[in-house]
Every structure is written in C-alpha cells, then in structure tokens.
C-alpha cells in the first residue's frame, strides 16, 4: 500500500464515520422528540431510554442509512480532492483513473466486511432489545387473533387448532393428523393443550384417537390426559413484528428451514432478508465507485451540488431495495434475485457513468 493509498483511505473512512455520527445523531434526536410523550407516559428517564433503546437504535440506523452516508463520504472526499487539484496532480503523475479507484475499493471493502458482521450477528441482537423496548413503551399491546390454525409439524404430521390464547399458552380444539399423500391415516383430538414451561412439553386433556385402516374400517381409542412433545412451540404464536431483523444469520437459517418444512406462505420475505445480508456489502462497493466517478472532477455546482446529487442517488437506491423486497414478499420476484436487483441496476448505472462522465 502506497502513501497515497493510505492518505485516501484515511480521508474516506474518517469522512464516513463522521457522517454516520452526525447524521444518525440528528435522526435519533428527531426520533426522541417524536416518542417523548410515550417516554413521559411511562415515567422513563433520559438515561434509561438511552441505555435501553438508543444505544441499540444507533447502530441500526447507521446500517440502514449506509448507502446515504457512503455516498456523502465519497463525494465529499473526492470533490474536495478535485477542488484542490490534488486529483489532477495524481493523474498528471501517471496514475490511471482505474488505479485511483483502488484505495476507494479498499476502504469500501473494510466497510463492507464490518457491515456484514454487524448485520449478520451484532445488529440483530440489538434489534431484539429495540423491539422489546417498543413493545413495552411505544407499541400498542399485541394480541394473537388467529383462528382455525393449520400447521405442518412433520413430513406426515399436521396440527389443527380452532384458537390459541397466547397469554396463557393454551390451544383449544386440538387435532393431530397423520396423512400419507392425500390419505388420512390417524387423527388424534383433544379439547385443549397447555404449554408447561418447566417440562418444555404440552399437556393434553383426554384424547380420542381415530385410526383408519383403509377398506377394513377404523378403530377408536381413548387416552387419558398426558404430556407430549410436538414440533410446535409458543414462539410459533408470538408476534412476528420485525422478526427477521431480530435474528442472527444462523437463527434466520433455522427459521427459514422450519418454514420451508411447514410450507408457510411468508417464507419469501425471510429468504429476501437472508440474501440481502449477502448483497448489501457488495452494494457498498458499487455505491462507492459511482460516488468517485461522479465527483472526480470540478463542478460548477461545487461540493454542495455533488453531495446533493449523491443524496438523490442514495435515496433512489433505498427505494430500489424497498421495492424489490416488497416484490419478493408477494412472490413477484425470486428472493435471491430481489436481493441483488438494486446492485445489478446500480452496477449498470455505474458502468454507464464511467463511460460517459468526463474524468
């Protein structure tokens, strides 16, 4: 690494982290102002709110606004170098524009690795605390209202509940069916099942078991109340508010595997989040390169105009991310493609700008 590389990387990273600190701090102040009535209603001190909420919300916002902060940092640093003719001196000394991009790619790679670690393992743990705090002090109390619930808990096993009381962890009108292809082989019914947290098992009331023997008829059996284990847990009836954001990558993979096995209809949205975590670091590098191409020459609009352009492009990128995520959740796009669409589109934009923008 040359001295010039270290110079640009240090300028880039310093501008990036300073931008993150300033922008996210302002957003947190605005957020605090909006939610202050809720905090006062629950008699929460500023220190309690800060240590139980904003200390986790800050890195969450920092990751969410990464496209904007990266653009601002790149445009600010590069346009300053161009305005002071430092870039002219670099290029005049024989350095190619492609070589000039190397320190930016190195700096963006550092941010990308940091981002991947944060969104895969660190930020989800903080988001759990955010959701816990909001459920206690900001959101309206949640109540499970599902009726006529059908859940696949095994290759041949299906559970039915007429209703479920999430406060008491009691399910009513329970049925466990064993089905081969489309043929019902066995059906167990009970008036209620109750979760025993000490035994980590379900307690069933008296059960009736009906076994079907094909053309030879069927048999009926009564079983007294007992404890049993099922691939079904109270967390399956808990709130799914921001659930994907609260799961680390291993936890998210486990949830996706369970949903695929059960044939859940919301699997796509979790797959989309999984693939976004892999695509997001690469998007960081793409946005960095676009920022360099746009700001590597003097502009009549000055640094402010170039930063404004960076804001616009960053917001367009975020809109693409949200749009592709929604298309994946409704099944219009495969989740993997949806996660990479913003990066693909902006790669094309970046290549076009590289070809046409004077450098």
> Percent of residues in helical segments?
55-70%
User: What series of H and E elements makes up the topology?
Assistant: HHHHHEEEEEEEEHHHH
Strand content: 15-25%
Instruction: Specify the oligomeric state.
Output: single chain
Q: What's the domain count?
A: 2
Q: Structural class from helices and strands?
A: alpha+beta
Task: Give the rounded overall mean pLDDT.
Answer: 91
- Stretches with pLDDT under 50, minimum 5 residues: none
Distance between the termini: 24 Å
Describe the main β-sheet briefly: 8 strands, antiparallel
How many DSSP-defined strands? 8
Essential attributes:
single chain; 359 residues; alpha+beta; 2 domains; eight-stranded antiparallel β-sheet; 9 helices; 8 strands; elongated
Structural features, described:
It is a single chain. The chain contains nine helices and eight strands. It is of the alpha+beta class and 359 residues long. The chain has two domains: 3-139 and 267-356, no CATH class; 147-238, no CATH class. Strands 1, 2, 3, 4, 5, 6, 7 and 8 form an eight-stranded antiparallel beta sheet that branches. Helix 1 (3-41) packs across helix 2 (46-64), helix 1 (3-41) crosses helix 3 (66-83) and helix 2 (46-64) runs antiparallel to helix 5 (97-137). The two termini are 24 Å apart. The mean pLDDT is 91.
